[in-house]
Fold this sequence. Notes:
Helices cover 16% and strands 34% of the residues. By secondary structure, it is α+β, with helices and mostly antiparallel strands.
Amino acid sequence: xSAAKWxxxxxxxxxxxxxxxxxxxxxxxxxxxxxMNREALSRTVELGEAVYWSRSRKKLWHKGEESxxxxxxxxxxxxxxxxxxxxxxxxxxxxxxxTGRHSCFFQKFEGSLNDGDWQAVDPVLKDPESIYK
Length: 133
């Protein structure tokens, strides 16, 4: 398969993006959700490290370029509809979230329909101010 063929199999949205889930290979924890364009997915394969598309900054974002919390890619999967990418990764320092936590999914819903709320249930492993100097 040529490079174009495997990239063309992905169903990119109207902005040329695909949603990406980063899952820790060793624990199966879902660490984060992000977006990739064709170049980001190509660079991820080329480097063996996660490269995403930052919608807010409108540029490629090599995970860990500022924080040092690089994601080494062990496996890349495409879902059955070919419109979501799953990265099975090894997370440097066990910190994936910009809040200094292991996972971006640290808020858990607790309670009921009328009195429920989101509670932070995972600890901060490193102060974000010390990560992003």
